[in-house]
Amino acid sequence: MQLITSFDLKKSEYLSKDRFISYHHQLRLIFSLGNQVKNVLEIGIYNSLLTDILKSYGYEVNTADIDHNLNPDIILDLATDFSLPKDKFDAIVLFQVLEHLPYEQSELALKKLAAATKKYLVISLPYNTLYSAFQIRFSGIPRSRYLLLEIPKFWTNKPLSKHHYWEVGLKDYPKKRILSSIKNAGLSVKKEFIDPINPYHYFLVLEKNINNY
User: Fold this and answer.
1) Phi, psi of 151 (to 5 degrees)
2) What is the C-alpha separation between 96 and 10, in angstroms, rounded?
3) Would you state the pLDDT for residue 104?
4) For the whole model, what pTM was predicted?
5) Taking the domain 4-128+172-212, which CATH number applies?
6) DSSP alpha helices (H): ranges in 7-47?
7) At what angle do helices 17-31 and 49-56 cross, to 10 degrees?
8) Residues 27 and 95 sit within 8 Å (Cβ to Cβ)
């Protein structure tokens, strides 16, 4: 995996409007798991924003990353034969991380993370589509209404990001393949979500199938 500090990301690029929308959904999905989640491991960090907010709400949070420059609690390379303490973390969360590994390595990492988590994995993956999104909002109604039309780019294997090995929706990586990998890792999909404002981020709440372990 490539170190995130080698990506030469500008703060204005990484902390974009779309990125903050992603943070909102990361938090919302973790909060939706309720009181059964108190201890969280965040894998793949760039800043402490998610961790700081979770800690302010009473969560115990540890961080893990391959990049020691980010000062994670755990130095972790998902491309290696890594190990994590089992049943310590109620939820392991990693957002826009697995695509930085070749697909077969990401499958192996997913299996090891499924074995390590006590209950849940909460992830997001890049979903490469052609899309049109329409927003409708009425005065007096607090929430907007959306219409999202998407066509996965099944005719190409070129990711949007040069740092990605693969992305959901591309020729060899249809959604059904990703869902099959999730099932083979001993996980079931509890919830999936795409925000029409930023449909490039595909969110999944995955629950560990206890009978498989």
Assistant:
1) -130, 110
2) 17
3) 97
4) 0.89
5) 3.40.50.150
6) 11-14, 17-31
7) 40
8) no
- What pLDDT was estimated at residue 150? 95
Contacts of 43 (CB under 8 A, 6+ apart): 63, 64, 65, 76, 78, 92, 93, 94, 97, 113
Encode pLDDT of 133-153 as tens digits.
Answer: 888 888 888 888 888 999 999
- pLDDT band per the 50, 70, 90 thresholds, residue 20: confident
Answer for the pair 188, 110: CB distance below 8 angstroms, yes or no: no
CB-CB contact of 186 with 111 (8 Å): yes
- Which pLDDT score is estimated for 11? 55
pLDDT per position as a tens digit, 188-204: 999 999 999 899 999 99
> Across-strand partners of 145?
136
Write down the domain spans for the chain: 4-128+172-212
The rounded distance, in Å, linking the Cα atoms of 184 and 166 is 19
Minimal CA–CA distance to 77: which of 101, 103, 49, 51?
A: 101
**Sequential DSSP letters for 146-205:** EEEEEEE-TT----SSTT-S--BTSTT--HHHHHHHHHHTTEEEEEEEE-TTSTTEEEEE
Residue type, 58: G
For residue 1, the model assigns a pLDDT of: 66
Question: What whole-number distance in Å separates Cα of residue 209 and Cα of residue 181?
Answer: 14
Q: Which of 174, 176, 167, 173 shows the shortest CA–CA distance to 200? A: 167
